[in-house]
Structures
1.
Amino acid sequence: MLEIKNLHVKLEEEDKQILKGVDLTVEAGKVHAIMGPNGSGKSTLSYVLSGRDGYEVTEGTAELEGANLLDMEPEERAAAGVFLAFQYPVEIPGVGNMTFLRTAVNAQRKARGEEELSASDFLKLVREKAKALKIDAEMLKRPVNVGFSGGEKKRNEILQMAMLEPKMCILDETDSGLDVDAMKLVADGVNALRDEGRGFLVITHYQRLLDHIKPDVVHIMADGRIIKTGGPELALEVEHNGYGDILAEVQ
Amino acid sequence: MALPQVKQDATEARLTALTMPEGGCLGSARDEALRRLRAMGLPSRRDEYWKYTRPDTLVSPDAARAAVFHNDETPMFGAFDRLRIVFVDGVFDAEASDDLTMEGVRIDRLEDICCKDIHWAKDLYGVLEARGQKPVERPLAALNTAYATDGVAIHVTGKLSKPISLSYVHKDEASDAILHHVIRVESGAEATILENGPAASRFNKCIEIDIADGGTLHHVRAQGRDHERRAATHMFTRLGRESVYKSFTLTVNGVLTRNEQVIELTGDDAVAHVAGACVGDGDFHHDDTVFITHDAVNCESRQVFKKVLRNGATGVFQGKILVKEGAQKTDGYQISQSLLLDGDSQFLAKPELEIYADDVACSHGSTSGAIDDTALFYLRSRGVPEKKATDMLTLAFLAEAVQEVEDRAIAEDIVTRLQGWLDRRS
Ligand SMILES: Nc1ncnc2c1ncn2[C@@H]1O[C@H](COP(=O)(O)OP(=O)(O)O)[C@@H](O)[C@H]1O
Ligand SMILES: [Mg+2]
């Protein structure tokens, strides 16, 4: 599904190397988790995959089902199936959440040569998905993320993901700022989307989320590299001993 | 202080190109306006109040030609039930206008107010304009009072069932129009005035509005899309106790527009809102100049102006809130913002507060910026193409101003026009 090879990324504006050779393959149907200390480059990786400005790829490749992601505009990547649940979802005053969702869904359909959803079909779908995430009609009417609590913003990200049905879901610290109940809602939302054709890359600080979203593979990232890869037990090890041991081990 | 010779000459040169209409009962008001004008002289580039907008083409003896813009868009407000009053190149068009009778209002042409002895109109004509000359001079408004060739007197005595619509059609490429309307809204009465159209190649328009205690006036204006047209407009509004004035202006294109709003809150608990949304390209120059005087207790004023500028367009905002001594519990809000869609465009803003009362809440803010990159990326990451995402954010930027229009259907129509402007640009 997603194949990243030797990815090197620096900041466009400064001479600062952030990713220093990332290799990572996420197979369809699998959930991969990335853990790692703050500042190790996890968010940068997610932004580079989704096409944010400000980064320069100096070496390496990133492909989704064989297509070169790095050559595409962000909207093309989205239409190809990449979705990033933001660590900090963006507030957009003046744009209604519903309008935003419908525009996004139909833009992707159009880009893929599919028919746009009718207003009533869209409404039915969004109501159903929103209900599962306990997002009420009021929240759908408000401007995108404006005045939303931290938990509401994260649930709104998952709603977008559920509506867009991407092939490759990247979740950047979707658990941060969530209480136990909200975490459960979010995890249920993610689990509902798990299927054979879809890959997940779950970036998190804590084992907590991984209790609910069971990963197949866990990677540890530090200083712009993946330094260790293992099964779910690796997350438990980090939970108990922190990153210290692992970092020491590779040095 | 004697007027500089250059200014005097420029003013006289302009006056020779004009003929004062037969005076009638307005003769003395016109003569006085002319005296005011001669004492002030027409604005020049050196005047502080015209620092950001060059008045040359507004004061020159002859109007520059402006092409008539043909398009197949339905005219603004076309779908709404309204009483239409049509002016073509500044001349009343009886054929195209509706019958001017409607319950709760009396409408007369300016030229008829003397023979029909419309007292209130005679007593209002030139009066608010003259008051509005202090503390800042507005010579183009005095010129208007002296030389206006047409206009209407609208006397609102009840709650009107439909809006009164002033449509300004531009047909002659060399037209130079001066219109002056007077409006009085009686106590407890309520009306909506709509204005639309480019009016003329050069348009000088003045409206004096007197709203009695408890009266309400809504005003929505759409200035025509003829790109080469020039306009200088003044609205002088006096508000009585518990009265309401809400005005919104949409401007799409126009090589030069200067809209002045001079508002005086003279009765307690009055409310005045003025807002505007404008979008323009290239040699588009748009100036909103607002002066609001609070001279009573517990009044509210609100100014919301948003400008979207591209390809070297210029936006100007000069907005002042003056709170006089004793105008306690004043609530004054002012925001002016521009969205610059490229590096060539500019926004020049001069927000001012002058307060002589101690128990007031006034705020003002002015910003100028580009499309928010983070928001743009967020939309694109969801699959929305860049152009569409930029358009969405542009409309979102304008939304705060458009929301000032209370009539939902009209607000939607305005959004459609703005969307049209965006769609026409790739
Ligand atoms: N746009 C940026 N400007 C400056 N520094 C940045 C930028 N993006 C990332 N960095 C730096 O790159 C490093 C990795 O950041 P990030 O990818 O956010 O890490 P993580 O998500 O693992 O905490 C940090 O040192 C961070 O300060
Ligand atoms: Mg991060």
2.
Amino acid sequence: MDGFLRYYDHFVLPFTVGMLVLFTVIIYKYVRWFVRMPKEDRRLVARGIFTKKTAQATGEVACEALGHRKIWRVNPTLGYMHMSLALGWFLLIVVGWIEATVHFSGELTAPHTHVFFKFFGPTSHPTMTGKFINFMMDFLLLFVLSGVALAWFKRLRSKALGMRRTTRHTLWDRVAMTALWMIFPVRLVAESAASGIDGSQSFLTGAIGRWMVDEFGIAQVFNISAVAWWVYSLVLGAFFLAMPFSRYMHIFTEIPLIFMRRYGVRSGERASSFDHFQIEACSQCGVCIDPCQLQADAGINHVQSAYYLRDRRYNRLRREVAENCLMCGRCEAKCPVGIESNTLRLNSRSRLNDQPAEGRYEYLRGVDGSCGEGRTGYFAGCMTMLTPATLSAMEKVFAAAGEDVWWADRNGGACCGRPLRLLGEIAAAQRMTDHNVELILRQGVTILVVSCPICLRAFRGEPRLADIEILHHSQYILRLVEQGRILMSSDTMSYVYHDPCELGRGCGIYDEPREVLRRLGTLAEVSQNREHAFCCGGSLANAEIDSTQQDAIARTLMAQFAATDARVIVTACPLCKKMLARHSSRARVADISEVAAARAVAAATP
Amino acid sequence: MSVNFGYTISLPRAVDLDRNDFSVALRVLRRLPELESCIGCGGCTATCTAGAFTEFNFRRVQTLVRRGEYGGAYREMNKCMLCGKCRLVCPRGINTRAVVMTIKRELGTGY
Ligand code: SF4
Ligand code: SF4
Ligand code: SF4
Ligand code: SF4
């Protein structure tokens, strides 16, 4: 207790109050969010704590929360800015704590004694280790200041850091940001003044301190010091006070998020308390804004993940913001925090649109448009019915392979349910899914080939179908070729491949379609491919944009294909095919099944 | 005793544009102005996944709503599976799924 009071000055009060509020609010929030999480999620956490997942999460926290490794990958300058602030500040606290603890020989002192150590303790130490610590503290301060300078620069000219837009801020954000930007310059002044008074020799604060004494005289430096320590404590206090209500809450929230994610907790299609951890872990860095085609092509500037998450967090989410998104996942693929923004958006939509579905779709009772008897099933889906070329291509492939097929929806079938789900009508979607699952299970197929990536995702997410191997037709065709069940001839035709969002980012299928095309001819690539591929604009997740906006999005995609000299643009989704065909002037647009079937012949019977 | 000859006659009815309440129709059209450009071709209905199994006619329901005839519209639109085929075939590029969602939202369970 003695140490608490021996080192005290009134100026520490703003800091102390801010810090107490900060930790009280954070602990209150985390405990509240955690206890309200579904029981199964809390059980996942309890089961994971004493496993190696905890160690892995700790490593990830060091890499991401301190080092900001993923931002480095997207944008190195931005990565340096975040790292210098986070890692630099963290090390300042750690080294400062060591310095103070050694000086007070382990005596229990209040936190402010460590934070304002250069005020309460000596500014420099004569020993070798002491000199090293002096150097480290100055060096770290310089490191953080370089990040702050970059942040100032970014605010002035966001283009300079390779970002077209910075996110718009709330009042709390502004308070916290202004305070944060002042903390380190003011700290530099305060510590320099103290060093000047003490006659410290360190390279930064010592040098500036000596210069201050020479320039203004020692009496003035005493005044500067008195004011600067007050201001330093005030800005620290202001930052801590504003932080839990501002976007800077992400600094701490990323940590529990990383741990819980390692334990297997995820957001779902219905909102849960866990969502808070994701929403408040968003740093509003804005990395997700540039990749969004709604912004780049359709001029829609208020719906991107950064804005959506901010609006939801402050309880001012409008229906249109939740619903105006292609759910293409381009932003999610780039988010350095790994926030599941599409899943969150989905559960915002279900909150808006989900309603009990009893009595709906009674007309589906007894509907069965299937035919055939094979153990290999084929589900075309609604959209494939609109691209009959895909259907006849698959017929030809099955015939060449001699496959006995059960056609699930040959004479008409229900939608897979995912389109309803994407607009938040979860209960209604479930009725569609149930109908199809019953149909498929009744037939007892072992493999289900699906032509539409939207249906593919619907069925792959269905636990009752876990025993059935569910393949996209591109995977199935490649398998037939590799097993030698069909032969495909190649020639000099040139192809370029478009990754459909639901197939690529949605199901992780990038290589199989490309492998099929490589066996047919030459394959060109565009720069925005695989997980960065553009959306075709036709996404069923967006019922907000009109056809002009859809067209603008499709044109961007087509422009990059036109830049290659490929003669055929190939895709693997009936919806993408429709959108692409509308906008192609020169090249032919085809589904992968069509180009493969045109060259497929039955392998000679042994 | 009346004999049922298997012929039915539709009830005499007419859409009375002077009496109908257009508030919902106007809100739907404000949200989706392109709906005004529907040429009534019926492409949407011809391709409709739900329409293959039940008496559901997207063209008819949305046309009646635009005329201020809301009876049964919510119940009918609830038969839609939102599969999106109609939007792809519509020659006027009408955002048909949004038409379904908006009409359901405007009318609610009362219809
Ligand atoms: S969602 Fe991710 S990328 Fe977007 S602002 Fe938040 S943290 Fe940054
Ligand atoms: S999912 Fe696609 S459309 Fe939606 S915000 Fe992200 S990039 Fe934009
Ligand atoms: S397809 Fe389009 S234009 Fe034709 S009736 Fe339907 S909504 Fe109207
Ligand atoms: S979205 Fe609805 S109205 Fe349109 S084709 Fe599908 S089921 Fe029919």
